[in-house]
Structures are given as C-alpha cells and as structure tokens.
Amino acid sequence: MRATSQAFLENAERALGDVQLQRALENVPRGFVTKRAAARARLPEFDALRDEARAIKDHVLANLDLYLEEYERKVVEAGGHVHWAASSAEARAIIVDILNAAGARRVTKGKSMVSEEMALNEALVPQGFEVTETDLGEYLIQLRGETPSHIIAPAVHLNKEQVATDFRRHHRALPAGRPLHEPSALVAEARQVLREKFLAADAGITGANFLVAETGSAVIVTNEGNGDLTQTLARVHIVVASLEKIVPTLEDTTTILRLLARSATGQECATYTTFSCGPRRPGDVDGPEEYHVVLLDNGRSELLASDFRPILRCIRCGACMNHCPVYQAVGGHAYGWVYPGPVGAVLTPALIGIAEAAPLPEASTFCGRCEEVCPMQIPLPGLLRKWRMRAHEAQAPGTTPWQGRLALRAWGWLARHPRLYQLAARLGVGIARGFWARYGRLVGAPFTSAWTRYRDLPAPEGGTFQARWRRHQRHRQLSSAQWRHKGPGQ
Amino acid sequence: MSRFDQRDEILARIRRALGAADDDPERRLAVMKRLFDHPPGTVPARARRPRDALVAQFISMLESQAAQVSRLERARDIPKAVVDTLRRRNLALRIRHGSDPYLAALDWASEPALTRHLGAATADDAAGLSRALAGISETGTLLLASGPDNPTTINFLPPLHIVVVREADIVGSYEEGWAQLRALYGERSLPRAVNLVSGPSRTADIEQTLIMGAHGPVALHVFIVGSD
User: Do B30 and B113 sit in the same domain of this protein?
Assistant: First the structure.
C-alpha cells in the first residue's frame, strides 16, 4: 500500500471531524482499557511475567540466527518447507510461486499484519487469485477496500450500520427483507458466506503469533476459529511471519501467552490457540497436504543492529494504541500505513524510511502510558524520541518548522540565563494580564493564535512561577520554624 | 527452495547485526540447552491449588467463557449424555467422532437411536465429539491433539462441539500439559496440530459486541468424566 504517513496532520484533522469514526472510537477505551486493567488485577504474577517475557525475547534476539536455524530444521523434519524472503516483493513472489505450483486459485486468509505489511492481497488479486479474508474484521474492511485501523480489531472504526450497508451491496444472495440491525444478524450472515469460502479454498494463508524453535510450530491465537478453518481445510497451508516471531520453547511461549490476551482484550486467554507443525501425517484424516513457511526479513535484521532493537520484542497485542490519547482521538488510519499507534510510530519509520514517516514520532504527547502497559516493556516514548532526533538530523518534512526551532532555541538560551529568564517571564506575565484585562480573554496575543483559535487561554494568576516558588519556600521555612518552636501535638 | 530464497544472506545479515560468528560454540550450546531443558517461567499460584480447587476452577473458567460443563460419574454415562445434549438442542441424533480408543470402547449400543459417523468432519455435521488429552485449570482450556483419533476438523466445523475430558487429566498449568505431550510424542515433537480451546467461537469485531459462533462452534459442551 502507498503510505500517507507524511500527511498525518491532514489525516488527523479529517479523523477528528468524522462523526462516524468518533462514535466508533468511543468503543476503544470503554472496551479494551477497562478489560485489560481487570485482567491484570486478576493475575498477581502479571508483572513478574512481563519481566520474564522481556528477557525471553531479548535472549531470542541475541541468538536469532541460531533459533531460526533450529526452527527451520524442525519444520523440514516434519515435512514442511521454509522460504526466506529479504523483502516484501520477494515474499510475494515466493507465495505466488507456491500457489501456482500447487495449482491453487481460491485462497482464504487468516488475520496477518505481516501480510498487510507486504501488501499481499494487492499482489495476488491482479494475478487472478480469489482471495478472501476470513477474520470478520478483516473481511469487513476487505469489502470496503480499506486497511486495518487497529492491529487486533481491524474494523474498530466501523459501525454496524456501515457493515449492514456493505453486506447488502456485496452479498448477492442476501434477501432484501432480512433485517440486519443487530450485530448477531451480521455475524450470522458473514458466517454463512465465509463458510462457503473455507470449504472451497485451495490454499489457506495465516500469520503467526509465535514460531516455536523447540518444535517447529507456528502458533496462531484467535477468538473466531477462522485461522483454524483456513489452515485445516485447504490443501496448502502457507504461514507468513517476520523473523522476530521466534520463541525458544513451549514454556517460553506460555509465559508470553499469559500476557498476550490479557494485554490485548482483557481475556484470560484467547478462545483458540493453535500450534501447527507441518503437513498431514501418515494416518491423518484431515489437515493440509502441503505446509510452507515464508520468513520475512524486510528491515528486521537492520533493526537488530540499531538502537531500535527493543521494538522487535513486540507481540502485537495492541495495548499501546488502546491506551494512547492520540490513537483514541484519531484512530488508526491517520497513521497512514499498516501499523498504527505508538508501535506503528516506531515501526513505520524503520520499515518505510523516516523521510516518509517523519510526522508519526511527533504524534505523541509522551504521556508514557504505552510503555506502562506494554507487556514486553518496550520503551516506546524513548524510541519515539530517537526517531524525532533522526528526523531532525535528516531535516525530514513534517518535523518542527524553523520558527518553532528558533523559539525553542531562544527559550533554551534564556533558561540558561536565570536573571534574564526571570525578567522575560515577568514581562510575559505582565503582557498577558494586560491583554486579559482589556479583552476578558487572551486573543490576538503574539504567537498564541494556534492555541486560542479553538480554546481560551486562562489569564496568568499572580506573578511568575519563580516568584510563587520563592513565596512558597519562605512560607514553608516559616511554618517549620513555628513547628519546631511549638513542638508536636500543639 | 524458491528461486527468490535468501536464506544464507539473511542469516549472515543477522550475524553481522549481532557481531556474532556462526560457529560460536558457546552461543550454540546456550541455545540447545534451552531447547532441551525448556525451563519454565513463573507458574501462576492459581495453577498450583489442591486438586478439588483445580477442578472447580477449570469448570468456572470454562463457564465464564460461555462453555457448558457437565460432570459424569463414569465413562459409560457418555453415550446417554451425548443423546441428552443433542435432544436438548433439538438436533438430529447424529454425532461425528474419530477413532479414539477411549470413545470407541464406550457402550454405544446402549443408545440405539444415535447414529455415529467416524472420521474427519464434513460441512453437514451438526455435532462433533472429541476427547481432550488434558484440561488446563488456570484458564479453563482443553488441550486437543490432532490425528485420526481426534481429527482437527471436528473441533471447528460442527456447530456443536462436545468434548470429553477425564477428571484425572485435569492439570493446573500449561506446563503440565506440555509434559503430557512430551511423554506421548517425545522431546521436541508435537502432533501435527495442538488445539487449545477455551470456549465456543466468538467475535467482537462489530462494535465490540461479543457474539458467539463466528466461524467455529456456536456451542461448546464439556463432559468431565469421573474415574469409575
């Protein structure tokens, strides 16, 4: 997909004015945030598990080459094939080759952010493959020709009325008189249509939440079971995953699984967690005949060598975006590429270049909630700050304009000259009070229009901060002297 | 190997990024040791309770995830319980299951009205029956292993999924489940598919409203069977 991350400000402005979207976004804090907090409270070991999960991933990343080799060995031993792709284009070509060699035309897909990253559908559809997304959210946005706006709830930006309209437009067999007011009716309709797709599929493509080196298993975590029907019913199962999805053992997988669903949706665990380990075995009566894994690098090996290595610990739970005040206000599409929210603001510049994505690291208040809730303890604000520095060094479009920089430099100079700073602050307060006295509010004061166009700036109360602080200190000294004089209990 | 394959180049790039040599015996030893020792992490206290509490927790967790749970005293109660479940749901008295010896050994003749179909599930099956290798108490999760005994399709195609788990097979933690799998399939080896199931299929993709029966079973009914 073409990235529009550079236009984040315009995207965000449009999102803020979109009534439908704003209504849909209300569901994010109401659902995910409260449920995660409750799930965490129910598991006293939650924070200990976070420390362990972080250590597991750091260990994997430090030995990634060896774990990948071991993983590959186990997949091949089980009769599967492992393909290594340096770029998205290579991965797409590999998948097209696999499908052609197997004579596969009809393809079902489980939810996979990596397949979004490599724009897989955009490559398959023009070549005549019939591709159906089977995760309900992904299916809804596929009908609309949209991209996911959330990594675990791709259609979180839609309302049920929009879904009903889309079904009436696309589902030819749907009787005009059937009511579709309730989500349950919409789900039943989708189930019926997608069931046919599952049964007719030649190949099923899934992502992977984890690749287990111990056993050569690809793990998918779902609530719908769509990934399981995708990978069980078709003749060919193709797993697409990026390199860093590796975990060493079943025990390590368990430690991270204990965090994943709780952080993502606030569930104790997802409804279905499936370990798939190759094609059908002797005696098996179901399962795929062919099993392929496409391992995608696409910038990961470079990230490994950079300051941004911690982002490779990410398990794509979505907690950072659920808790992000910026994401909650503008939704996922404003970020302009595949991964939204704080994780997207760190990943996107790495994967498509900082010049293409410079506004994303700016889309943060640095409130720190993302780092606080991240199960893998990724220092997201710190990484965003690193990107801001790089964007600044690269003079990328979308970073702070020269006027802003000049003002900051002036402030920095003043801050290092306390007497001048005091004078300037007193002057500033005086001017602000003057405006306020005259107009009843601050309007038209120099340098403030970006703020005051939409909101009132309160008048300064009293003098400068430093003056107040001095008074406060004097007062404290006085009262503690009194306390010493009178003694306690007086 | 595909003509686009970049295996060696990618591995070399990773090694360069890590400043590591590919024949470093110390790193390799640490990796192999972890793979064969598979040390456990923190196991939640709730998985280390007395047996009765583990069983009660298994049931309440499953129920909180919208599964139905029945306790049966003996294995020979299973055929009647299957029939009762189908009747209660107004379903035809037909059930699909695999060649699991535990299920095969049941006295199915005691329910002559019930038709059984063996093998993989088809789109026409309304109900399927599986046996779980284990029940994991800490999250109310069934551990199902693929194979002719319990074909994977039975877990996902029929709208009603009935799963039998022996009370003796209920364990506290996932780690105990992995130990059972290793005992059955060997070190570093799993069946083709391991399914961890914690309720019927669901989605909240439309306005975060939770709806059952997204793609897989609309209902999950678990029989916990006593030792007699």
Answer: no
Please check whether residue A335 is in contact with residue A363, taking contact to mean a CB–CB distance below 8 angstroms: yes
Reading the block at residue B149, the tokens are 């005994």
Residue B203 in any domain: the answer is yes
Distance from CA of B103 to the nearest CA of A (A): 17
Whether residue A262 lies inside any domain: the answer is yes
Per residue, the 3-state secondary structure of A93-133, as one string, reads HHHHHHHHHCCCCEEEECCCHHHHHCCHHHHHHHHCCEEEE
**Residue type (1 letter), A360:** L
Provide ipTM, 2 decimals: 0.97
Angle between helices A183-200 and A160-170 (to 10 degrees): 40
What are the tokens at A394? Answer: 């690269």
**Which helix (H) or strand (E) covers residue A65, if one does?**
helix A64-77
Helices A46-62/A64-77 angle, 10° precision? 90
Q: How many residues does chain A have?
A: 490
Q: What is the mean pLDDT of residues A396-413?
A: 81
Q: How far is CA A2 from CA A8, A154, A360, in A?
A: 14, 18, 16
Smallest Cβ–Cβ distance between B214 and the set A93, A136, A254 belongs to A136
A342-378 pLDDT, tens digit per residue, is: 999 999 999 999 999 999 999 999 999 999 999 999 9
Per the structure, the complete domain to which residue B216 belongs is given by 52-225
> How is residue B7 written in tokens?
């295996």
Check which CATH number belongs to the domain holding A281 and give it. 3.40.50.10420
B139 in contact with A, Cβ within 8 Å: yes
Residue A30's pLDDT band (boundaries 50, 70, 90)?
Answer: confident
Mean pLDDT rounded to a whole number for chain A: 92
Pick B4's closest partner by Cβ from A43, A93, A283: A93
**B41, B64, B120 member nearest A52 (Cβ):** B41
* DSSP 8-class letter at B126: S
Residue of A258, A136, A113 whose CA lies nearest to A197: A136
In chain B, how long is the greatest CA-to-CA distance? 70
Contact A443, A452 (CB under 8 A): yes
Do B137 and B169 belong to one domain? yes
Count of domains observed in chain B: 2
Same domain, B106 and B151: yes
CA A1 to chain centroid: 17
Q: Residue B35: what are its φ and ψ, rounded to 5°?
A: -65, -35
Give the DSSP H/E element, type plus range, for residue A264.
helix A250-264
Q: From residue B103, how far is each of A133, A195, B143 by CA, in Å?
A: 36, 28, 16
Shared-domain flag, residues B185 and B221: yes
**Stretch 22-51 of chain B: residues touching chain A, C-beta under 8 Å:** 22, 27-28, 30-32, 34-35, 38-42, 44-46
Q: Give the Cα separation of B216 and A207 in Å (integer).
A: 19
A100-134 burial: b if 16+ Cβ within 10 Å, else e: eebebebbbbbbbbbbbbbbbbebbeeeebebbbb
> What are the backbone dihedrals phi and psi of residue A153, each rounded to the nearest 5 degrees, phi first?
-130, 75
Q: Are residues B21 and B57 in the same domain?
A: no
Q: Which two tokens stand for residue A19?
A: 């009534």
pLDDT per residue over B31-63, tens digit each? 999 999 999 999 999 999 999 999 999 999 999
DSSP B169-183: GEESSHHHHHHHHHH
* In a domain? residue A439: yes
Within a domain: B113: yes
Domain coverage including residue A259: 43-298
